[in-house]
């Protein structure tokens, strides 16, 4: 599994991988801080699989997933970023990859070699694209084959990051939640509604998810007018925030 081959990252990705394009930027430093705090939050057990999701569409979960994957790989870990958003995939565009085959193909038994859907992109980072949009994404993601895939991947690699669909519109992430070691919820400032975040957290808890924390995305810093970035804080959505 995971054969190496030459693969270049596009420099005009629609989702800005700041950790690649601007490695010395404030945003990249914030991603490093988020990575560190995820590690602290998971000290009770070894983190091998991490799901990144959001309450609703447009909160930046895929941007966070991609940048986190790059930073973990820079740390020397062998990382696989999996696009499990089978309904609205974006990871293949971010890394300039073809998406004729992917996770959906493997789960639907439409391919013999999983390596056909896994691409070495930079250093220690591999990307598994979503594949064609299937008619039954929830069933595929909730299947035993998905569990087996994650188990197999963690035998080969240090960390699997799963870019999952938003929680409230569909059940996909709830089905994935108890298959991974930890979950991070991305909340976009000025977009996410408190009730939606609360409902998303409750849905994850019902699915027995291990919620490691939340990432506040798109924070406007008064010292950088119009600046797009991640906040330095990383915390839990507590009952006090209701």
Give an overview of the whole structure.
By secondary structure, the protein is an alpha/beta fold. It has a single domain, classed as P-loop containing nucleotide triphosphate hydrolases (Rossmann fold, 3-Layer(aba) Sandwich), CATH 3.40.50. 33% of the residues lie in helices and 19% in strands. The protein has 9 helices and 8 strands. Strands 3-4-2-5-1-6-7-8 form an 8-stranded mixed β-sheet, with helices on both faces. Strand 6, helix 9 (194-206) and strand 7 (211-217) form a beta-alpha-beta unit. The radius of gyration is 17 Å and the shape is globular. The N and C termini lie far apart (45 Å). It catalyses: L-tyrosyl-[protein] + ATP = O-phospho-L-tyrosyl-[protein] + ADP + H(+).
Structural class: alpha/beta
Task: Give Rg in angstroms.
Answer: 17 Å
Arithmetic mean of pLDDT: 83
Please state how the strands of the largest beta sheet are arranged side by side.
3-4-2-5-1-6-7-8
CATH architecture: 3-Layer(aba) Sandwich
With helices defined by DSSP (H or I, 4 residues minimum), what is the helix count?
9
Straight-line N-to-C gap: 45 Å
Biggest β-sheet strands, sense, barrel: 8 strands, mixed
Work out the strand percent.
15-25%
EC number: 2.7.10.2
Protein name: non-specific protein-tyrosine kinase
Enzyme class: transferase
Pathway: Capsule biogenesis; capsule polysaccharide biosynthesis
């Amino acid at each position: 599994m995971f054969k190496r081959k030459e693969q270049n990252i596009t420099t005009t990705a629609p989702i800005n991988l700041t950790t690649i394009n601007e490695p010395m930027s404030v945003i990249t430093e914030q991603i490093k801080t988020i990575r560190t705090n995820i590690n602290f939050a998971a000290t009770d057990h070894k983190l091998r699989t991490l799901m990144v999701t959001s309450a609703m569409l447009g909160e930046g979960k895929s941007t966070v997933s991609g940048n986190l994957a790059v930073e973990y790989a820079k740390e020397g870990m062998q990382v696989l970023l999996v696009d499990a958003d089978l309904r609205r995939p974006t990871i293949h565009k971010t890394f300039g990859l073809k998406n004729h085959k992917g996770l959906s193909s493997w789960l639907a038994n439409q391919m013999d070699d999983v390596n056909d859907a896994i691409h070495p992109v930079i250093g220690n980072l591999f990307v598994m694209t979503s594949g064609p949009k299937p008619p039954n994404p929830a069933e595929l993601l909730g299947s035993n084959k998905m569990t087996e895939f994650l188990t197999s991947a963690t035998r080969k690699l240090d960390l699997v990051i799963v870019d999952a669909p938003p929680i409230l519109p569909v059940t996909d992430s709830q089905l994935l939640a108890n298959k991974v070691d930890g979950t991070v919820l991305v909340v976009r400032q000025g977009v996410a509604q408190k009730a939606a975040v609360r409902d998303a957290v409750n849905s994850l808890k019902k699915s027995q998810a291990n919620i490691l924390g939340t990432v506040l995305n798109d924070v406007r810093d008064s010292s950088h007018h119009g600046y797009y970035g991640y906040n330095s804080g990383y915390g839990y959505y507590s009952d006090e925030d209701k």
